[in-house]
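User: My collaborator sent over this chain with a note saying "see what the structure looks like." That's all I know about it. Can you take a look?
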Amino acid sequence: MSVSLVIFFIIAEVVSGVALGMMLWATITEGLHRSRNVHYNLDTECLTAKTGLFGGAAFLALDASLIWLVCQILTLNARADYLEEDDSKGEYGQVYVTEMETNGAAHPAP
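Assistant: Without extra context I'll predict from the sequence alone. Here is the result:
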């Protein structure tokens, strides 16, 4: 197994867990605040749950999704390396610009 794939997988798991925890924390805190809040003096300011916590959780969730995308790319790369699967797209450098121009494929007819 690829070392970089394992590292990115562990990072993706940790970031996803922290994002989930922060999102649950902000949601539960806000729900408890709204259900248990009783104001006897209406002139005081009402503090709500920490809005930065929910925004940070959303940012971490975005980071986690990008890290999961990198994990998918590394998985495809490791699969191609270890299973020696054929790439249906061909080899690099197989088609050259000069070959396309000589065959007339570079400028199709109108």
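A starting point for your reply to your collaborator: The helical segments are 3-36, 51-82, 97-103.
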